[in-house]
Amino acid sequence: MGFTQLIKIFNPFQNFNYLRYSVGIAIMFNGFPLVFFIRDTLHIGPASNVFSAFFFAFALLLMLPTHLFLRIYKPNSTLLKYAIGFIALIMYHFFAFNTSGTDWFIEFGNIFFTVGFIFLLLHIPNEVKDTLIHVLFVFSLFSNLTLVYSLMTDPNWKIGMRAAVTFENENAQAGGNPHIAARNALICLLTSILLFSYYKNILIRLGLFSTILFSLGVVVLAQVKSSMLAIGLMIGFFLLFNSSLTSVVRFIKNLITIRSLIVILVMYFGINFLMNRYSELYGLVYGYWHNGVDRILDVLFTAFGVKFSDTANIDASAMGRVSSFNYFSLTLKSPEILLFGRGYKSLFMDVPLLESLINHGIFGLIFFGGFNYYLFKSTIKELKEKSNILTQFLAYFFIYFIVLLVSNGRPYDVSFWFPYAVMIRFLGVKYLNNFQSSQRNDELQLTYP
């Protein structure tokens, strides 16, 4: 693809419906960085969850199709069934076993937006995939830039601190949430890499390559262990499904050609020049990277008691998760908790898979764990088959969730379920295996008298 196709994708006169669908989906999928930038950096709108609710309501409005209730598209039916089962279970526990003291407005809002998002996605045609991946890229790149602007204009942020937008709402987390910045950078990184292979134009590729480096820099600045581990896992999965003995031999042969050696020498001297010219910037990035690696080694020491470096110390957040696993082992002796659970948001464990079992019993684990199991199967299948650019992105992005499922968040979080909704609709759906799938293969026609 080249500039002509790129212009067509972003031309509202030729691609209006797919653009508005894609903008709505992108806001739901990765809208929090934009919400916090508008609310907390530009100071537009109230610093509360009400502003976020209006923002996501606008996204759902953009997704409203003209064929509402008349035509729906096939989702991954297995994932949809498990998702409905888990949502129904937590709603039952919300009314029957709820001593959490949570805000009803927030809890109902989360469930409403999750169900509404899944419902509207069923009305979005498959052909939106090419537009959607571009819009996701633009949104994530813009959010990366707004993060840099927020840091530059924040008088409390200093070099060495983790990159995040500072919240201004009442009882907000001090220093913002770097996980949001890291996740956005991860989305930008993945979309950039996939689009890099999608386009052959040298100028577009140069811009995408710069974005890849920029996104890696943001991940390093955010110093979020889960994102760094996820990148490592993504590289591992890529090598697993894209390398063979033949490809390795071919790579070595190409590497020892005169042309390749010249390119390597030019890159070597170029990198040396940049490192000497911008030594302070290099030292800053290296310091962030070294600090991030130390954090990962601290986690490994906390979890397994093995010192991979002389400076390894107990990590407080990792110790909390170790305590969660210890509590889980004690719970195995309590049949009542294993069967019925402790109740809606009764215990915060920071390990979503365990929390689904402890708070909602065996059925919570069956629905939430089963959902992620089948999503993992769909991911592996997609990494092998490479159906299209959107499903490849979703498959690699789920690898990030594999890390989160045992290290961060809660099974109710919309930060899980908004991306999950897109995966339900587009990932692991057979008719997406053909790029030119016809309408009769991917639509369920609903007729009314």
Structure description:
- By secondary structure, the protein is mostly helical.
- It has one domain.
- It is built from 19 helices and two strands.
- Strands 1-2 form a two-stranded antiparallel ribbon.
- The longest helix has 34 residues, at 352-385.
- The chain is globular and about 70 Å long.
Helix and strand content put the structural class at: mainly alpha
Number of strands: 2
Using the CA coordinates, give the radius of gyration. Answer: 23 Å
Low-pLDDT segments, ≥5 res: 432-449
Task: Tell me roughly what share of residues is in helical segments.
Answer: over 70%
Main sheet specs = 2 strands, antiparallel
Number of helices: 19
Overall pLDDT metric: 83
Any key phrases for this structure?
disordered C terminus; 449 residues
